[in-house]
Amino acid sequence: MSSPAAEPADRDNVFALRPRPAAPPRSTPPAPLWREAVGRELREERRRSGRTLSDVAGAAGISLPYLSEIERGRKEPSSEILEAVGGALGLELVDLTARVTRSLARERATRSPLCLAA
User: Fold this and answer.
1) Is residue 65 part of a domain?
2) With contact defined as beta carbons under 8 Å apart, do 37 and 103 qualify?
């Protein structure tokens, strides 16, 4: 506990905190996360091929809940997990990442303001 004589000096070194100014409102929605885009691509491919979560999870050697979380964009899977899940769906890792890249590029194009040349 500090002595009463030291208190006034300590108060001289205390600065009031100012609240952080509010961030300006965004004109465009935030960019999607990589894990969300990967999950979306995996889910679309699984559904296109008519397979169940259980079937793909078993073939990939991961748990059904983990695959579900990946597809929902809740988990950030390692490249080894992506390779396993992609392989279970007949996709190579390079093909999966190319699909995700194209998907993100399309989303960015629809979010960006339209620029017209004069």
Assistant:
1) yes
2) yes
